[in-house]
Fold:
Amino acid sequence: MNLQQVFDQLNTVQANPAISIFVPTHRTFPDNQQDAIALKNALKELETRLSEAHDKREVQTRLEQIEKELSEHDHNYNLDTLAIFSTPESTQIFNFPFKVKPRVIIDQHFATRDILRELNSSVHYYMVIVSRMNGRLFEVFNDQLVHEFNQEDELQGLEFPLENTHLYTTSSNDRSNATKEENYIKEFLNRVDKSVQEIYKQNPLPIIVVGDERTVSFYQQVCDNPSAIVATVTNSANLEAEARLIIEEAQEQVNLYRTKLQEVAQTEINQAKSQNLLIEDLSSIYRAANEGRLDQIFIKKGYIQPANIDSATSTVELDTGTTTTDDIVDDILSTVIHHGGKAHFLDAEFLDQNANLLAKARY
Structure:
């Protein structure tokens, strides 16, 4: 799933109405038996709310359009959230690998802020699992499997999972020749990498390589894009285990990579301070975002701030008893990304004490 492409495409849509539906779902049986009921309740809520502003025929047409797209949906393949985005012209359905608060939104634009937050706060990556005889590829979101690539994923190169049936022999004559054995393995891993790179080009994500030390080292040597490899895992107990277990074993390295990203962001904050480009006042950050002057923003994880915005002065007021936005942080985040800026979600230890939101100006 190219989440960035999904966001970019949905974020440009304007329609009357644009319907967004989020239904939390379950990955496994029997919990996923609840999902059909939750979806039915969401569609009933949609019908009730549409009926308040649209005639019966139009409401029926919209519901039939959505239900037609849902007719082939199999709850056995649910991830963490079922998302429906519908306009009068089309309906799209996505299984998202992250939890979203259940709700139905009827507006002139799709509700994409949850996607935006996840894009900028999560680790989305590939896991390449390699041995002398096999190659597997997972797409993973934080600690959750999104997809294990298989024969249904049509590739120009070899399809996953790959088996080293042609390039490796176990005959004693060849096995005794260490150089020949090494060449067999590297040639196989090169084939694995060709298929990995084909998928990477469609959706560039960081890569974590899993295997024994020798095989991982060989893969790094033959990889066409070694700079995409952000971590390696060489202590996996069983490379043929189900994806969930291998992903669990890799989480220490995933967390180290996440920490590295936050350390880089912390360096950016310190540089911004030394260059007098750091903005700490919330109103100043809000105004700079709307003016397109922000290069990066740094948000404390979990920070949500209802606020009242004085439209005359673009001043952000807190604790006034009234609010014009449920979350000024999301407003700023969306604006910064719209203007080509970057966002970082950081643990408290990577921010100054009491800092919840900081920004680096472009100039």
Observations:
- The two ends are 35 Å apart (CA to CA).
- Residues 14 and 307 are 26 Å apart (CA to CA).
